[in-house]
C-alpha cells in the first residue's frame, strides 16, 4: 500500500530543502514506485504507491480549485460513491479524486461514505487547512506532529519520530500501555499522535480540531421475519468482504488457524478464486504451529477439503516476542512472525494478507452472553427475563441470581459489564496487581480522552451494550492497525468489513449466540462452506504455552539483573513488586500474567531502543528546530 508524507508551514514560508528531503525520505520504500509531490504556499504533500497498487489509480490529485488529496488504501464501494456524487464525476476517476469530491461536497461527514481500509491527507486552500483522516477501524496508519510553526505527517511512525526529533516519552501513553496494553489516541512520543479511527483531524494555523464521521450503530436495528434471511444476508456480506480484498493478479495470502473465523475466510477466498474466469490464483495459507497444538486436526481438515498445503511457521522459531524483537517505533507483539511474513510474501510476490481478527467478537464466539436477559427486563417482560436468565444459568452452570442482578443493574443505570468480566468472583490476590508506583499514578492524571472514553454504546439497549462496548474498545486501541513491518501490503481483516460489522451489531443478539450455542448464526450460514470437522468445532485454541515460552527468557533476564530495570529507573513500576511477580511467573504461579506481559514488553522495548541509540531523554526540540532538522 502507499506511503503518505507532508509538511505545512503556517506562515506560508517556502518549504526548506531540508524538510523537502524529509518528506521524500518518508516516501522511500524498496517495494514501491517513484514518489509524487504536490505543493502550495508553505505546503508540500507526497505520495508513493507500492508495487501492488494499481498503476491506473492515481493516489495524489489536485482539483481545478487547488484542493489536493493524497490517498492510501482500498475503496470497496466505488459504485455507491459515484452514484452519490452524480453524473459530474468520471467513472474511471481515482479513489483520491472521489474522496476529494466527497469532502468538497459534504465536508468531514462525507468521508463516512468511503468504505474500505484507507487513510488520506487533504489540503483545503480556502481555509488553509490540512485534513488527515482514517477509516472507521484505523487499519491504514497515519501520524502527525504539530509544532508552533508547522504540521508534519507521515504513514510511518519511525520516520516521523526521527524527522520531528521527538525523544520525550509520553507518560500518559506509558501508564495506559502498562495497565491496558494500548493507549487511546496517543503514541509513545510526546507531541506525536495517531489519526483517530473514524475521525477527520483538521489543522490550521489557529489550532487542531477533530470531527467524527462514523459511530457505532447504537440505534440501528435489523430484523427479518424469516430466519433464513439472516443466513442469506450474512453469506452475501461475508462473500463481499472477502471478494473486495482479494488480489487482482497475484496470490492472496491468509492466516489459517483451523478456527471457524480463519477457515471461513480461506474457504470463501478459495471458492471465489475457482469461480473467477480470469484465472485468479488460489490463496496461500500461513499456519502457526507449536508442540501440543489442538489446531492441527482442524487446519489439516481445511487443507484436505481444499486440496492444498499451506506454509507452517513454528512458533518456537517465530515467537510471540524475543529479547531483541519487541516492536519498532512502538512496543508490539509478534515482530519475529511479522518479519518472516514480510520475507515470505515478498518471495511469493503477494501484496494481500487476510487475517481472522475481530471474528470472535462479531460472530458471537462467546460462552456467556447472559446480558440478553437485560432486554426482557427493559421491555418489562419479567417472566421471559427469568426464563432467559435460567437458560443461561443452566448453560453456564452458574447461579441465576448474578445474571438477574446484572440485568436489573443494566436497566437502572448506564452500567455495562467490562468486556473481560464473567460471573465468577473467585480471583487471586494478584488479579488487580499492576506494580505501578503510587508516585507515577499521581503524576499522570487521567486525560479527558481516557477519563471520558467514547460512550456511545451506552445509548444502546442493555442487551446490546456489552458487544458494542467491546467493539468500541477494540477500535480505540487500534488493534487492527497494520504492523509497521507490513505497511507496504494490504494487511486486512474481512470481519472488519464495515457493512458486515454493522449488520452483525444490529440484528437481535439471540440470532448470533444462545446458551450453549456460540456462533449460532455463523454455523448455520456457513454449513456448506466449511468442512464438517471445523463447522462442529467447539474448542478454542489457547496460546498460553507459546506465550510463556517466549516470555521466559525476558523474565529470566530481568531476574538475573534486578538492579537494571528501566521502568524502575523511570519511576513507573515498583522493583519489589515486579520481582515478586516475575518469580511467581517462572514458577507457574498466579501473577496477573496478562498485565505482566505488558510490563515485560515495554521494558525490553525501552532497552532495545537504547541499544539502537534511540533512547528517550535529552533536549526537546520545538518549532522551527523540530521542523527543519
Structure keywords:
25 helices, 629 residues, 13% strand, alpha+beta, globular, 6-stranded antiparallel β-sheet, Glutamine Phosphoribosylpyrophosphate, subunit 1, domain 1
How would you describe the overall organization of this protein?
- With 629 residues, this protein is an alpha+beta fold.
- Among the domains are: 3-214, Aminohydrolase, N-terminal nucleophile (Ntn) domain (Glutamine Phosphoribosylpyrophosphate, subunit 1, domain 1, 4-Layer Sandwich); 544-611, no CATH class.
- 39% of the residues lie in helices and 13% in strands.
- The protein contains 25 helices and 17 strands.
- The strands form three sheets. Strands 2-3-1-9-8-10 form a six-stranded antiparallel beta sheet.
- Helix 6 packs antiparallel against helix 17.
- The longest helix has 19 residues, at 593-611.
- 47% of the residues are buried.
- Mean pLDDT is 91; it is low at 424-428, 448-452 and 618-629.
Give a topology summary.
Blueprint: E1 3-9, H1 17-25, E2 36-40, E3 43-48, E4 60-62, E5 68-73, H2 78-85, H3 95-106, E6 118-124, E7 129-134, E8 143-146, E9 150-154, H4 157-164, H5 171-180, E10 192-194, E11 199-204, E12 207-212, H6 227-243, E13 253-255, H7 260-275, E14 284-289, H8 296-306, E15 311-314, H9 335-348, E16 352-354, H10 359-362, H11 373-378, H12 382-396, H13 400-412, H14 438-443, H15 448-451, H16 462-476, E17 490-492, H17 498-506, H18 509-512, H19 520-525, H20 532-535, H21 544-560, H22 566-569, H23 575-586, H24 593-611, H25 623-627
Parallel strand pairs: 13-14, 13-16, 14-15, 16-17
Antiparallel strand pairs: 1-3, 1-9, 2-3, 4-5, 5-6, 6-7, 7-11, 8-9, 8-10, 11-12
Helix pairs in contact: 2-3, 5-24, 6-7, 6-17, 12-13, 21-23
Amino acid at each position: 500500500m502507499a506511503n503518505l508524507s507532508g509538511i505545512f508551514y503556517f506562515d506560508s514560508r517556502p518549504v526548506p530543502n531540508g524538510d523537502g528531503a524529509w518528506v521524500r525520505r518518508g516516501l522511500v520504500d524498496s517495494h514501491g514506485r517513484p514518489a509524487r509531490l504536490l505543493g502550495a504556499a508553505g505546503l508540500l504533500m507526497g505520495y508513493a504507491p507500492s508495487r501492488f497498487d494499481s498503476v491506473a489509480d492515481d493516489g495524489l490529485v489536485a482539483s481545478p480549485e487547488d484542493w489536493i488529496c493524497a490517498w492510501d488504501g482500498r475503496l470497496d464501494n466505488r459504485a455507491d460513491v459515484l452514484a452519490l456524487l452524480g453524473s459530474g464525476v468520471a467513472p474511471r476517476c481515482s479513489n483520491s479524486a472521489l474522496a476529494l469530491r466527497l469532502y468538497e461536497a459534504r465536508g468531514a461527514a462525507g468521508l463516512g461514505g468511503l468504505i474500505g481500509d484507507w487513510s488520506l491527507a487533504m489540503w483545503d486552500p480556502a481555509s488553509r487547512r490540512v485534513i488527515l483522516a482514517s477509516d472507521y477501524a484505523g487499519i491504514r496508519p497515519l501520524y502527525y506532529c504539530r509544532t508552533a510553526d508547522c504540521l508534519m505527517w507521515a504513514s510511518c511512525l519511525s520516520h516521523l519520530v526521527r524527522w520531528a526529533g521527538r525523544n520525550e516519552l509520553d507518560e500518559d501513553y506509558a501508564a495506559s500501555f502498562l495497565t491496558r496494553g494500548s493507549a487511546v489516541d496517543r503514541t509513545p512520543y510526546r507531541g506525536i499522535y495517531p489519526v483517530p479511527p473514524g475521525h477527520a483531524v483538521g489543522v490550521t494555523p489557529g489550532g487542531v480540531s477533530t470531527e467524527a464521521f462514523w459511530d457505532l450503530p447504537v440505534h440501528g436495528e435489523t430484523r427479518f421475519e424469516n430466519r433464513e434471511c439472516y443466513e442469506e444476508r450474512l453469506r452475501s456480506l461475508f462473500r463481499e468482504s472477502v471478494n473486495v480484498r482479494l488480489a487482482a493478479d497475484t496470490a492472496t495470502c491468509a492466516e489459517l488457524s483451523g478456527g471457524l473465523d480463519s477457515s471461513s475466510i480461506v474457504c470463501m477466498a478459495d471458492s471465489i478464486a475457482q469461480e473467477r474466469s480470469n484465472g485468479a490464483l488460489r490463496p496461500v495459507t500461513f499456519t502457526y504451529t507449536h508442540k501440543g497444538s489442538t489446531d492441527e486436526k482442524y487446519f489439516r481438515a481445511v487443507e484436505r477439503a481444499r486440496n492444498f498445503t499451506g506454509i507452517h511457521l513454528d512458533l518456537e522459531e517465530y515467537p510471540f516476542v524475543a529479547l531483541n524483537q519487541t516492536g519498532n517505533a512502538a512496543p508490539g507483539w509478534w515482530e519475529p512472525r511479522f518479519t518472516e511474513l514480510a520475507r515470505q510474501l515478498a518471495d511469493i510476490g503477494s501484496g494481500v494478507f487476510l487475517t481472522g481478527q475481530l471474528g470472535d467478537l462479531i460472530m458471537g464466539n462467546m460462552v456467556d452472553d447472559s446480558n440478553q436477559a437485560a432486554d426482557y427486563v427493559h421491555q418489562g417482560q419479567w417472566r421471559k427475563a427469568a426464563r432467559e436468565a435460567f437458560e443461561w444459568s443452566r448453560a453456564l452452570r452458574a447461579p441465576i441470581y448474578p445474571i438477574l442482578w446484572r440485568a436489573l443493574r443494566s436497566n437502572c443505570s448506564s452500567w455495562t459489564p467490562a468486556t473481560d468480566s464473567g460471573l465468577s468472583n473467585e480471583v487471586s490476590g494478584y488479579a488487580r496487581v499492576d506494580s505501578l508506583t503510587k508516585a507515577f499514578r499521581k503524576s499522570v492524571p487521567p486525560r479527558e480522552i481516557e477519563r471520558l472514553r467514547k460512550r456511545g454504546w451506552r445509548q444502546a439497549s442493555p442487551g446490546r451494550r456489552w458487544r458494542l462496548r467491546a467493539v468500541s474498545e477494540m477500535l480505540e486501541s487500534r488493534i487492527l492497525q497494520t504492523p509497521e513491518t507490513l505497511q507496504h501490503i494490504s494487511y486486512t481483516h474481512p470481519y472488519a468489513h464495515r457493512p458486515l460489522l454493522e449488520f452483525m451489531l444490529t440484528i437481535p443478539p439471540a440470532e448470533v449466540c444462545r446458551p450453549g450455542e456460540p456462533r449460532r448464526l455463523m454455523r448455520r450460514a456457513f454449513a456448506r462452506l466449511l468442512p464438517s470437522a471445523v463447522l462442529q468445532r467447539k474448542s478454542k485454541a489457547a496460546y498460553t504455552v507459546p506465550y510463556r515460552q517466549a516470555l521466559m527468557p525476558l523474565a529470566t533476564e530481568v531476574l538475573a539483573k534486578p538492579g537494571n530495570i528501566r521502568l524502575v529507573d523511570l519511576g513507573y513500576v515498583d522493583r519489589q513488586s515486579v520481582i515478586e511477580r516475575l518469580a511467581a511467573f517462572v514458577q507457574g504461579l498466579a501473577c496477573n500474567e496478562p498485565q505482566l506481559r505488558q510490563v515485560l514488553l515495554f521494558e525490553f522495548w525501552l532497552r532495545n531502543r537504547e541499544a539502537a541509540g534511540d533512547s528517550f531523554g535529552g533536549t526537546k526540540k520545538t518549532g522551527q528546530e523540530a521542523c527543519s532538522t
